[in-house]
Design brief:
Helices cover 40% and strands 19% of the residues. A hairpin with a 2-residue loop joins strand 8 and strand 9. It starts with a strand and ends with a helix.
Amino acid sequence: MYIDIFNGDADGICALQQLRLAKPVDSQLVTGIKRDISLLSKVSAGEGDILTVLDISLDKNRDALLGLLDSGAEITYFDHHFAGDIPVHPKLVTHIDTQPNTCTSLLVNEALQGQHLAWAVTAAFGDNLFDSAIKAAAPLKLSNESLELLKTLGTCINYNGYGASLDDLFFDPADLYKKIQPYENPFDFIKSDEAFNVLVTGYEEDMLKASIIKAESDTVTGTVFILPDEKWSRRVSGIYGNDLAQQHQDKAHAVLTSKGAGIYQVSVRAPLKTKTGADELCRQFATGGGRQAAAGINELPESELGSFIETFQRHFTK
């Protein structure tokens, strides 16, 4: 049995799209909201099963990974998040690179020698790696208008992954992948599937609401915003951070979204001029993790809000 385990954001979906265009198989899909990264614990597999893991931290899935390997499963792992020590096992193949200018889809593109490059470019845009996306797209010789379309698509696929639960999303990431799956070319998906228009409309409406929220803390090196406990807030939290990072490339940004009951979800973006420090900051808190340029905390108690803001501002003032 083939099992594809992938993050529900643009990078995870586009990475899988590239792989399955290159090697079509009938596979079981395991995914979820963008923050649902402990996906390997949901998988039962053993001898004869072939697993592909895309865009989820090995460090956060280490125990489940080792258990699946001990059960006899063969696993190929592509990722760009903090991994910690990478296990050496005869049934594990890893493509892991945590450099801040790459993403999982670009690693897949490298492994496939550019077979489906446009989908990798889409993912890089979605992961807020605009410079990397434009550089990778050079062989495609696209017009500025076409590049903007891929940027919009990547942004909107990524936007769809944010939320506290699947109920917050416009599409279950597995269903969105299935809508994308028939299209070898992202431009054909844009032209042919109404899902694109649904996501663009939702994104624009949610971003407009976010734009009127005033900063909770603002210094020359970092800005913190707190969004209310609303569906639109949960959907836009990470994408709003990406947008702020592009607008103010020398500053760090944190977008906190109330989850109710005195709990916040946190998205952190390091300054784009450095693309470092976000993961180091977030790992100081119990449910934090991510990558150097973009990281988050799944649950920050209100009692730690002041400490977080102080630590955030100090961390990016170094």
